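Ticket 4471: requesting a sanity check on a complex prediction with flavin-adenine dinucleotide. Repro inputs:
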Amino acid sequence: MAQHSIPDVQSEQFEAELHGDLIRPGDADYDSSRAVWNGMIDKQPALIARCRGAGDVISAVDFAREHDLLVAVRGGGHNVAGTAVCDDGLVIDLSEMRGVWVDPDAQTAWVQAGATWADVDHETQAFGLATPGGVVSKTGVAGLTLGGGIGHLRCKHGLSCDNLRSVDLVTADGTFVTASEDENPALFWGLRGGGGNFGVVTGFEFDLHPVGPEVATCLVFYSRDRLGECLRAYREYVASAPAEVSILALVGVMPDEELFPADAVDETKIAITGCYGGSAADGERALAPLREIAEPIADFSGPMPYVEYQQLFDADYPDGMRYYWKSLYLDGLSTSAIDRITYWSDVAPSPLSTVDVWQLGGAIAQVGVEESAFAGRHAPFLLGVEANWERPEDDDANLEWVRDCLDDMRQFSEGSVYLNFPGFLEEGEDMMRSTFGPTYERLVSLKNEYDPTNFFSLNQNITPSGRARAGDGSTS
Ligand code: FAD
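Returned C-alpha cells:
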C-alpha cells in the first residue's frame, strides 16, 4: 500500500460523511486515540476514523481503497503485536461501537465489534447467561473471537468462535455481508479462527449458556519447592477432570506484598486457577484436589460472582506497560517439559513475567478440525510465555528470554502456535503454514475470494495468491 499524505479537501469530504470523529495528527485526542494496550507500540497513523456503525465502516473502507491507504482495524486495542494501529495509514477504529443486546429467551447476544468482554459479561450476566470470552475482561471481543478465544469456560462451552451464530462484516470492496452456517458458510468457516483477514466485523451473534451468577473458583499459590510436584498433579488432575473445569497454571514471581507472606513475595511460585462452569456446590468439590497438592503459600479459592472472576486478572495487565508474548501448543506435559518450564521461569528477567500452561481439550476438541479454521483443537495444553516489564532499557533481555524459551520448548510441540498471542508480526508465512497445515490453502482460497489485494494485511496474515507477504515490518 502506498503511504502518502491525503489531500485535506478529500479527508474533509470523508469526515463529513462519517457520523463518528475523524482524528488527525495534531488533534487534542490524537495521542490517546493512537495508543494501544502494549506500551511497546508507538505508531503514527495519518487518520483515525472513529466509526459509529456499519455505515461509517463502509465509508472508511471505501475511502482507504480509493486512496490506496494502509489499513489497520481496531477492536479492543489489546493485540499484543499492536496490529490495531499503523504508521501513515487509516485506522478503522470500532472502540465506540460497544453495544450488547441480549435475547434471554433465545439465549443469544448480539455484540458490536468494539465491545470488550466486560461489556458482554455485564449484559449477559444480568440474565444469568454467559458466552466464553478471555481471562482478562478489558480485552476486545473482536480480535479474540476471530482468532479463536480461550477463556475460563473453554472446556465446557468451547472457544469464543465456537459459540458464534453469525457475523456481520464489511469486505474489502465495501460490501456488507452476513456469514453464518446458512449464509456465506465458507466465509463463516474462515472467520472462526482465521483472524481479521476477511473484512471489518461490525457485529457478532453469540450463543449464551446459563452460568453463575456465582461460580466455584480456584486460585491457589504454591512455592517454588513444590513446582514440579504441582505441575505433575495438575497434569494428572486435568486428565480426568469433569468437563466443567478449565484450568490455567501460571509460573513466575508475581510479586505482590498484599497477597503473599513477606518471605514469598520475591520468590518464584505457581498459581493454579480456574472456575467451574456448573453449580457452585459441585464446583467446590471438583476443584478441591487442586487446593490440596501441598501446603499453599496462599489460597483465594471459593465461590465468587462470575463477573468478578472474569475481572480478577485485569489489574495484572495495565495499559501502557511493555509486553512481548509467544505461545506453542504442547503435545503433553512430560517430566522433561516440566523441568524446562521450571528452568525458564527461574531465569525470567522480569518478576512480572510468567510461563503459563493452559488446559485445552474438552469442548474445544469435540468440534471437528474441518468445521472451522481454528488450528489448535488437537493439543492437550497451550504454553504461553509472557514477558511483562516496565523499562525500555530491559527490552532486549525480555525479548531474548521469550524467544529462547520458545526455541527450547519446541522439542515438546509439533510447532504450531495460538495466533492471538504472538508478540510481533515477525513469524511470517512459514509459521502460518505450519500452524494451519492443510487448512492454510483453504484459507488462501477464501482470502483470494474476499480480499485478493490483501487490503486487510495488518494481522496474522493469510497472503492471497501472487501477493508479497504484507505487514508494515517495523515491529520485528
Ligand atoms: P485489537 O488490537 O483491537 O485487534 C487485533 C486484530 O484483530 C486487528 O489487527 C485485526 O486484525 C483484528 N480485528 C480487531 N477488530 C476487528 C474487527 N472489528 N473486524 C475485523 N478484524 C478485527 N486471548 C485469548 O484467547 N484468551 C485470553 O484469555 C486472552 N487474554 C488476553 C489478555 C490480555 C491482557 C491481552 C492483551 C490479550 C489476551 N488475549 C487472550 C489475546 C487476545 O485474544 C488478542 O490480543 C486479540 O487480538 C485482542 O483483541 P482486540 O480486539 O482487543 O485487539
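Notes from triage: The CA atoms of residues 76 and 140 lie 4 Å apart. Leaving this open until the requester confirms.
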